Amino acid sequence: GLIVAGSVAGLNAVLASAATMAAQWIQVWLLRRQTRVDLAEPADVDASWRTEMATSVKNLFPLCLFNCVQGHVTTWMLSIFANVKDVADVGALSRLGVLFTFLALPLTQLVLPVISRTQEPRRLARLCLFVLLGMMVTSLMLAGAGIVFSTPLLALLGTPYAHLHHELAWFLGTQALAVTANAAWGICYARSWVRLGWLQIPVAITAQMASLIWLEPDEVSHAIIFANISNVTGLAIAAWLMLRGLADRIRSRKSAFVADK
């Protein structure tokens, strides 16, 4: 009976993955069909564009791998230093991360394309500041609402997790930080300000190792804090990259102005 149930569960997972892939391919096919008349693909990609895109991908590749690993740090730490119950608590809290996912859609679909096309330095700086402050304030308001209404929010997870008020506060706070950090990195990606993005890896690892002096890895709240130290360093690195990018943009604009004279 257990073998049959496991086989059915595995089959359902395969079918769900296949259905998702099929739906995405159908969307791509329909989009290409509907836009074929209006969009003409170039015979070849400009060599300068190809070089720039290849450079951006090379700069981002190590950071993408690092972020994939960082996403599982909390679970790994608790599985080593704590017990199964603590791992289950973190897993339950992580479901509430869906509350913040809606913030990413307007950012990626509406705001970042505008930022990537903006050339005037002052307007670009205002847009970057507006995006960061807007995402930070919105995510903090959402986190605050979750803390105020923690009892009904935890009730959605079930009775075994009704006691996680303290851990919920830390989780929501770190989610708000993560949203702001992701917005900052989204701006850097949109403007290709990622040449020194690899610095996030040694800085985050060093900060996390240093934090073990004060943190207890067998506590859920401390494990959540440990995993999200990378968001603190990531926000700092992304802000620094943004300032460098804006400074370079201002210098290039001044140079073009002087050349025109």
Keywords:
single chain, mainly alpha, 11 helices, 261 residues
Write the layout of secondary structure elements.
Elements: H1 2-35, H2 47-70, H3 73-81, H4 84-94, H5 98-101, H6 104-117, H7 121-148, H8 150-157, H9 165-191, H10 200-211, H11 220-260
Helix pairs in contact: 3-4, 3-11, 6-9, 7-9, 7-11, 9-11, 10-11
Can you give a write-up of this model?
This protein is mainly alpha-helical. The chain has eleven helices and no strands. The chain has helices spanning 2-35, 47-70, 73-81, 84-94, 98-101, 104-117, 121-148, 150-157, 165-191, 200-211, 220-260.
Order of helices and strands: HHHHHHHHHHH
The chain-level structural class is: mainly alpha
Approximately what portion of the residues adopt beta-strand conformation?
under 5%
Mean pLDDT: 81
Largest sheet: number of strands, sense, barrel closure:
none
Helical percentage: over 70%
Q: Nearest-angstrom radius of gyration?
A: 22 Å
Low-confidence stretches: 1-11
Q: What separation lies between the terminal Cα atoms?
A: 82 Å
Q: What is the molecular shape?
A: globular
Number of strands: 0
Question: Number of helical segments?
Answer: 11
